[in-house]
Task: structure prediction
Amino acid sequence: MTSLLSQLKTMTTVVADTGDFEAIQQYQPEDATTNPSLLLRAAQMPAYQSLVNSVISEVRHLNLPSDEQMSHCTDRLAVRFGEKILDMIPGRVSTEVDARLSFDKKASIKKAMKLISMYEDAGIGSEKVLIKLASTWEGISAAKELEKRGINTNLTLLFNFTQAAAAADAGVFLISPFVGRILDWYYANDNSLDLKGAHDPGVISVTRIFNYYKQNDYTTVVMGASFRSTEQILELAGCDKLTISPAFLDILSNGRGKIARKLYADKAGEVIETASASEKQFRFELNEDAMTTEKLAEGIRSFVSDQRKLEDWLKNL
Result:
């Protein structure tokens, strides 16, 4: 019998949630995605020291003002990792905008265009890149503008239906609704509930979003993310895409058994109705959802923290 990973790949596009080149080569995903946390870990690996050193050398020779130098260095590092990843996958790589810009639409667009320009300078077209933005009102608004310019986007730190509906209305290319972090919140707040399998609140959230998109013929891709177990992954078999860490890719590649498809684009269940939300309504609905409010803020803080750690580490090289 084929592995669980091989079976999953027949139902869902598998994306590697890592900046580790060796893991990407081993599991052969279609796409790959990175974030500041993953880049920090990857950049500190001895195997990638020469890549990091070459980026630092390039930036130093540009003689940029000190306040621009580090920003350019981390952007260049993200793009260099993206370049290497694209040498190993047939699809796209997601590169994230600095999370400190999560509430600044104009600055997010400017940063996104800079990243795309860096890729183009390396001979890589924008069709091979997804720009990752936080699913704030400003992030979704920036993504809407970027999509109009032909720059495809990946909305991350997405925890609820309101964010997903707004992203679809904005015409974004892809969303990354989180599964594991939703479960973390429920465990922290009420661990007496049955939160396993189909009762997992993260699984329920992504399933509802997927069904809503398919019912309304949205072209936005749903890519489940942030998993805490292989059970969560298998409960979403049939989702457009799933981004999976190397640890779970390893378990799935060695696992055996029969996978049952759970999600079908042409069998999306009962009709889910919603109306387009204004900015005021969007902010109010997020405020009403304690889990989303807390996890979105926590996620942005975490990415900002790792971005700063990466910068501090680079300063000491």
